[in-house]
Every structure is written in C-alpha cells, then in structure tokens.
Design goal:
The chain is of the alpha/beta class. Strands 3-2-1-4-5 form a five-stranded mixed sheet. Helix 1 crosses helix 2 and helix 1 runs parallel beside helix 3. The protein is globular, with a radius of gyration of 15 Å.
C-alpha cells in the first residue's frame, strides 16, 4: 500500500510532495514495515505536488520490490487527487505539468511492462485516513523546506 500527496503554501507557492508506503517484510513473518519520503519542489501548484507524490510512491514501491524488501509486485496507490492519478493513467488530456506527467507515466508504464500490477484508489483528503494524513504531513514539511530554502526550479 502506498499513499501520495502534494502540498503548496499558498497555491501556487512553495510546494512539496510526500509518499508513505506500508508493506510486509519478506524476512520477518507478518512484520509490517513503513517507509516515507518527501521532496521540496520550490514554487509550484497543488497539482504539481500531487503528481510528484505519485512519482515518489511509484519509484519507492519499485525500489522496495526489486530489492526484495517487499513481497508482492502488486501496488495499490492511494491519493486524494483524481487529477494526478487520471493524468498518469491517461484518463484525461492535460496541458499543464506535461513534462512531469510524461515522466511519471514513463515510470508507471515501465513498471507495468516489468510485470507489476498497479491500481490507483481515490481517498478523501483530510479525513483521518492514516496513510493519507502521513503523506499530507510529509508534503507539508517539504513545502516548508521549499519556502525556507528559496529554491525555485
């Protein structure tokens, strides 16, 4: 299970992305492990942060599975952004954030081609869902780092 989120402050403004993963560790019978990551993105929009968060979640899931830290090549990604998941799955045509969409789609397709099963699930944001609240916190912290660093790509 993976959860992704993005956060600007304000929108547009200093932005960040976060991803949280939970998986069964292959060497410890029944042990659930969690991994989290985030990225400070400089100035951006919520949609950019959400897309970047999906990219972080996909890459982290791929790395964990390829290195045999996670047991299954089935990845369920939860996001409170239909914009981002629909863009990656090519359910909509987008002109904003096109380079980022293409990069995340490339990763997504490469994982599908390698035999991964990937499903996106929508979850209501700020509703107390543990993984989503964690990803939101990570994205918010990354947004603060963007603001404090003065970095603007």
């Amino acid at each position: 299970m993976a959860v992704a989120d993005g956060s600007p402050n304000p929108n547009p403004g200093a932005s960040g992305a976060g991803a949280w993963l939970s998986f069964l560790h292959p060497d410890r019978s029944g042990t659930t492990c969690t991994v989290e990551t985030s990225a400070a993105l400089g100035k951006g929009t919520n949609n950019r942060g959400e897309l970047w968060g999906l990219g972080l979640a996909l890459q982290l899931a791929k790395d964990l599975i390829v290195r045999n830290y996670a047991l299954r090549s089935e990845v369920h990604i939860f996001s409170d952004s239909r914009y981002a998941s629909d863009a990656v799955e090519e359910k909509t045509k987008n002109t904003e954030n096109l380079a980022l969409i293409i990069a995340v789609r490339k990763l997504y397709r490469s994982m599908l081609d390698a035999g991964f099963t990937i499903e996106f699930h929508w979850v209501k944001g700020h509703s107390g869902v543990v993984g989503n609240e964690t990803a939101d916190r990570l994205a918010g912290e990354a947004s603060s780092r963007s603001s404090n660093s003065g970095f603007t790509p």
